[in-house]
């Protein structure tokens, strides 16, 4: 149960997240044949930015694929941009560590503050994305150890107006204080049980994003973010 | 005994109504103040809403209900009620996300035309409890954390309360007579029960409904007379429109329109039905509510839209014969 102070900090967390959203990039997975291509840019977020922001394949830390039988296993992505992930998968998750970002007077750079002048703030970004192609009971549990959004029941049965019930986890455990957005619009913050409910607003691609700031090693600010993508017919 | 039934609308129920309208910044366990208070359901100016207080948080509340009465008789020897100010200070606490409790201390000023009988003083304090429910695949207690999408569900409250006879029921005018309607206390506990239903049915629109009952007990006054005020039944509907939101400044402005139905039972004196009491009426209450950070300020103009009083010509100074009422509420959440 949140105390007054906890609630206040939750409120602050939301505001900070809204503010820090400008520092985050979107990651998304596009099916190509039976494979998936990983893209980065500004497709779903509310803030403006380049449609595509290229990345080096070396930022990929982990790719997991739940095959049509529901068995989860790591897969090796390609070493070229855009990263190609071999499928087919019932669900696929990717976690990337894009390193340290610094906001300067002339823009945001993917460099540590020590290499720049006029740095306003900096952070390290660990970003994830998960795409669901179908459903099995095993997908009601988190697949990875990263920050992850997991529907607690088959989302493909949902219609407009229905609630998508989500569990947000980190290290496989419920994570409180995570701001969750639908189509880029913050809709709430997870409680102690890591759960949050969002309402389906339209058919087609559902884009749910989540992020949380925390203190990293050495006092560095660490921003974890993740996205859940699925298509409702 | 010269009775006027100027008992305030801000009696026990009015207290909780006013209070529950207050905590727009107090929406339970939500996306944080920045989102829920600014984008979540709105609240009427006076009617009770389905918002409960967040667990562990305290609400401070102040209300002024200024009632200006129509006068029926220009004879300077027949002094009538001019106006009344019903002040209310309150404190609320969220024991659980679904359980809130409140304490109110009212202060009443009932003023006649010049030269008349004025009374001022603290009235009966009241205690209230409120249980919050939400319909989400069934009726459930309000959880400790709700998203903006959860806040779009039907929300309900069940509330009940009582007043304690801390006011003075035996105020005497210059002739030594007691007018229960001008006293600042009822002499006995009164009690109330009610339910509310609230739904944010569009991003900017909220519907709110309150049904409630307020009952009084018979009291024997110092002059030996016994009076029991008539029951009050309320059915208050409200539409609230979110006019303006500034997330950066944590500012929100709502427009509200309430239709308040009030049934007043006939008072009884020494066991007999009292003339010039009771009736039915509908008030219209347009108003505006401003939220800023953890502060909420509501301002409403309450006027009679329809009435059917039992003996209207004789009910000057009572409900239904107001020229207008001005409502001002201020609340803060800590």
Account of the protein in words:
Chain A has 233 residues and is mostly beta strands. Chain A is 7% helix and 47% strand. Chain A contains one helix and 16 strands. The N and C termini of chain A lie far apart (38 Å). By secondary structure, chain B is mostly beta strands. Chain B has one domain (12-333): Beta Barrel (Porin). Chain B is built from two helices and 18 strands. Chain B has helices spanning 12-20, 33-39; strands at 58-69, 81-96, 99-112, 119-122, 126-135, 139-141, 155-163, 191-202, 205-215, 219-220, 226-228, 232-246, 251-264, 268-269, 272-273, 279-292, 295-309, 322-333. A twelve-stranded antiparallel beta barrel of chain B has the order 1-2-3-5-7-8-9-12-13-16-17-18. A four-stranded antiparallel sheet of chain B has the order 10-11-14-15, with no helix packed on it. Chain B starts with 11 loop residues before the first helix and ends with a strand. The A-B interface holds A 1-4, 7-8, 10-15, 18, 163, 179-180, 182, 186-193, 195-199 and B 29-35, 54-58, 96-97, 136, 143-150, 152, 247, 334.
